[in-house]
Amino acid sequence: MVYINVVPPPILGTKEIILNSQDINLFPNPATNQLTIHTSSFHANEAVTVSVMNVLGEVTQEEKLKWSGDESLNIENLSSGIYFLQMKWEGGSVVKKFIKE
């Protein structure tokens, strides 16, 4: 016999922003010194934490931003390889992959 427990989704309020990975663009990708984050889904001055993680999930860089449009990250100190950029805000989070040359 199989039992299925259905749990309703939590109510998160009306301020929730629904994003998926297509709503955020990273360029250039691959990048060498600067990585630009583009999205029009955030409001001006919205608090966003941007973390860069290596393939082991270790945070190698983190910045707390007040969103003001396209944001650029200095990534020149990262070693060449594959990284993940995580953006967290009050309404959720999203992760994008990029390559550092």
Main sheet characteristics? 4 strands, antiparallel
Please state roughly what percent of the residues sit in beta strands, choosing from under 5%, 5-15%, 15-25%, 25-35%, 35-45% or over 45%. Answer: 35-45%
Uncertain stretches = 13-18
Measured between the Cα atoms of the first and last residue, the distance is 53 Å
Annotated CATH topology: Immunoglobulin-like
CATH class: Mainly Beta
Name of the CATH superfamily: Macroglobulin (MG2) domain
**Over the alpha carbons, how many angstroms does the gyration radius reach?**
16 Å
Average residue-wise pLDDT: 84
Spatial shape: globular
- Indicate the CATH architecture: Sandwich
In total, the number of domains comes to 1
Give the number of DSSP strands: 7
Order of strands side by side in the largest beta sheet? 4-3-6-7
How many separate helices? 0
- Going by helix content, strand content and strand pairing, the class is mainly beta
Proportion in helices? under 10%
Structure description:
By secondary structure, the protein is mainly β. The protein has a single domain (23-100), classed as Sandwich (Immunoglobulin-like). Helix content is 0%, strand content 45%. The strands form two sheets. A four-stranded antiparallel β-sheet has the order 4-3-6-7, with no helix packed on it. It is globular. It starts with 24 loop residues before the first strand and ends with a strand.
